[in-house]
C-alpha cells in the first residue's frame, strides 16, 4: 500500500517540502497536499533584488511573489521559509546568461536555474528538513519504473508541458521530486485555487525571465558585463558586408525583423560569429538544419548512451515546437542528433530535448545544450556533416 506520492507511508507520516513561488500552480500544490493530510512545509527562494520588481506582474521570484507565497502559507497554516540565494543565482544563472549571449548563443536561464539552484540547493534543503519528497508546481509527470527509479514524462496538458525545461534533472533528483499537477489542466488548477480560498487564484502566469523586469535582456547583459557589447558588421553568407550592428547580443539565429537591411530579398540571421563580432545573414533555406552537436548531455534512458549504436528518438529543439523523429548517437564529448526532417532556426545555447516518441505521453530520455548546428554548404558557414547513414553502424533501436 502506497500513498498518492508513491511512498509506503500514510500521508500523516509523510513530510513534503513544497517549492512555493507565489504563483497559482505551486500554491495549489501546497493546498492540495495539505488537504490530503500530508505534513507540508513551504519554501520560497529569493533569487535577486526583489525590491526592483515589487508589484510587477509577469515574473517569478519577485517581491510581490514572496509576499503572495507567505500569505498562502498563512492561509494553509503551514510553516514557510524564505531562503536567500541571490549571490548564487547571480553567479550561476545571471552571469552565465550574459556570457552565453556574448558568445553568440541563445541561452535558456530557466534550465540553468533548475539545474543549479532549484533542484540542487532546494533539494538539499528539503532533505535537511527531513522531507520525504520535494514537490513543485511544474507541469510534468513522473512515474515509478519497472526496473526501479522514476521516469519523466510530458504533462497531460500539452499547452502547459514543461518537460523541455526539466531535461537536465538527474535520476537521483527525479526519484526525490514529485509533480502533483502533471495530470491536470490549467483551468482545473485555477478552480482548485478558488475552492481552497487562495487569494492568488486569478494571478496571471509568469511570462518573463525573472531577472529581466523590462523584457529587454540586453540591458541586463550590459549591466552585468559593462563594455562587453561591441558593434560589428552584418555580412551575408559569402562574406559581403551589408551593414553594421550594435552588438551580436541583439540577434538570434532565425531572426528576420530588426536587421535594418535593404537588399531586395528577405534575409535571416544564419549564424552569430562572436570571435569576428559578425552577424551572418542569408536566405531562409540556409536555416535548415539536420545535424546537431550537443554537450552537457543529461541521459535518463534505461540503456547507457555509449558506443557506436544509433538510437531512434524524437528531438525537440525549441520549447514551442513539437518533438520530431531523429537519430541519436554518442560522441566523445557529448552526442549528435540527426533530424529526419530539417528544422529551421536551431540556435547554439538552446536545448535539444530527447523523447522516446513524438506522442503526448512521451518519456523524456534526456537532452543537452546545442553546441553547433550543421547547415547547407556555403562559403562562410562551412560544410555540414550531412545525413547519418545506417549503413555500417549497429541497427537503430528504440529507447528506452
From TrEMBL:
Q: What is this protein called?
A: tRNA-specific 2-thiouridylase MnmA
Protein function: Catalyzes the 2-thiolation of uridine at the wobble position (U34) of tRNA, leading to the formation of s(2)U34.
Report the locations given in the UniProt record. Answer: Cytoplasm
A GO CC annotation recorded here is: cytoplasm
Where exactly is the site Interaction with tRNA?
138, 350
- Give UniProt keywords alphabetically: ATP-binding, Cytoplasm, Disulfide bond, Methyltransferase, Nucleotide-binding, RNA-binding, Transferase, tRNA processing, tRNA-binding
User: Which biological process, per GO, is one annotated for this protein?
Assistant: tRNA wobble position uridine thiolation
Q: Which residues form the tRNA-specific 2-thiouridylase MnmA-like C-terminal domain?
A: 290-370
Q: Which GO terms describe its molecular function?
A: ATP binding; methyltransferase activity; tRNA binding; tRNA-uridine 2-sulfurtransferase activity
InterPro entries hit by this protein: MnmA-like (IPR004506), MnmA-like_C (IPR046885), MnmA-like_central (IPR046884), MnmA-like_central_sf (IPR023382), Rossmann-like_a/b/a_fold (IPR014729)
All residue ranges annotated as the tRNA-specific 2-thiouridylase MnmA-like central domain in the record:
229-282
Q: Where is this region: Interaction with tRNA?
A: 160-162
Which Enzyme Commission number(s) are on file for it?
2.8.1.13
Q: Which family does it belong to?
A: Belongs to the MnmA/TRMU family.
**Positions of the region Disordered?**
381-400
Main location per the UniProt record: cytoplasm
User: Which positions are annotated as binding ATP?
Assistant: 19-26, 45, 137
Q: Which NCBIfam families match?
A: PRK00143.1 (NF001138), trmU (TIGR00420)
Instruction: State the superkingdom.
Output: Bacteria
Q: Which reaction does it catalyse?
A: S-sulfanyl-L-cysteinyl-[protein] + uridine(34) in tRNA + AH2 + ATP = 2-thiouridine(34) in tRNA + L-cysteinyl-[protein] + A + AMP + diphosphate + H(+)
One Pfam family named in its UniProt record: tRNA_Me_trans_C
Q: Which organism is it from?
A: Chelatococcus asaccharovorans
HAMAP family (alphabetical) = tRNA_thiouridyl_MnmA
Active-site residues from the entry: 113, 210
Amino acid at each position: 500500500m502506497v500513498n498518492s506520492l508513491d511512498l509506503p507511508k500514510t500521508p500523516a507520516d509523510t513530510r513534503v517540502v513544497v517549492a512555493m513561488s507565489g504563483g497559482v500552480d505551486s500554491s495549489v500544490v501546497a493546498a492540495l497536499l495539505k488537504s490530503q493530510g500530508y505534513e507540508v512545509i513551504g519554501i520560497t527562494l529569493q533569487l535577486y533584488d526583489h525590491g526592483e520588481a515589487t508589484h510587477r506582474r509577469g515574473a517569478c521570484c519577485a517581491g510581490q511573489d514572496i509576499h503572495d507565497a507567505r500569505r498562502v502559507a498563512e492561509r494553509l497554516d503551514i510553516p514557510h521559509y524564505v531562503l536567500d540565494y541571490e549571490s548564487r543565482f547571480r553567479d550561476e544563472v545571471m552571469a552565465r546568461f550574459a556570457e552565453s549571449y556574448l558568445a553568440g548563443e541563445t541561452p535558456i536561464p530557466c534550465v540553468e536555474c533548475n539545474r543549479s539552484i532549484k533542484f540542487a540547493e532546494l533539494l538539499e534543503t528539503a532533505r535537511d528538513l527531513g522531507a520525504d519528497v520535494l514537490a513543485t508546481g511544474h507541469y510534468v509527470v513522473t512515474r515509478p519504473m519497472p526496473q526501479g527509479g522514476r521516469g519523466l514524462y510530458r504533462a497531460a496538458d500539452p499547452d502547459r508541458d514543461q518537460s523541455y525545461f526539466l531535461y537536465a534533472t538527474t535520476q537521483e533528483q527525479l526519484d526525490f521530486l514529485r509533480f502533483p499537477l502533471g495530470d491536470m489542466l490549467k483551468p482545473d488548477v485555477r478552480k482548485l485555487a478558488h475552492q481552497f480560498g487562495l487569494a492568488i487564484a486569478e494571478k496571471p502566469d509568469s511570462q518573463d525571465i525573472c531577472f529581466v523586469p523590462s523584457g529587454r535582456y540586453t540591458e541586463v547583459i550590459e549591466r552585468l558585463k559593462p563594455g562587453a557589447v561591441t558593434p560589428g558588421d552584418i555580412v551575408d553568407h559569402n562574406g559581403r558586408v551589408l551593414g553594421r550592428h550594435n552588438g551580436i547580443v541583439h540577434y538570434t539565429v532565425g531572426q528576420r525583423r530588426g536587421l535594418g537591411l535593404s537588399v531586395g530579398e528577405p534575409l535571416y540571421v544564419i549564424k552569430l560569429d562572436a570571435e569576428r563580432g559578425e552577424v551572418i545573414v542569408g536566405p531562409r533555406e540556409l536555416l535548415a538544419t539536420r545535424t546537431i552537436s550537443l554537450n552537457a548531455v543529461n541521459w535518463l534512458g534505461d540503456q547507457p548512451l555509449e558506443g557506436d549504436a544509433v538510437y531512434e528518438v524524437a528531438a525537440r529543439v525549441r520549447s514551442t515546437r513539437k518533438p520530431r523523429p531523429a537519430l541519436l548517437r554518442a560522441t566523445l564529448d557529448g552526442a549528435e542528433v540527426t533530424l529526419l526532417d530539417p528544422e529551421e532556426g536551431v540556435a547554439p545555447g538552446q536545448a535539444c530535448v530527447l523523447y522516446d516518441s513524438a506522442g503526448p505521453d512521451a518519456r523524456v530520455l534526456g537532452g543537452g545544450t546545442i553546441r553547433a548546428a550543421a547547415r547547407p554548404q556555403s562559403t562562410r558557414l562551412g560544410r555540414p556533416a550531412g545525413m547519418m547513414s545506417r549503413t555500417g553502424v549497429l541497427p537503430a533501436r528504440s529507447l528506452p
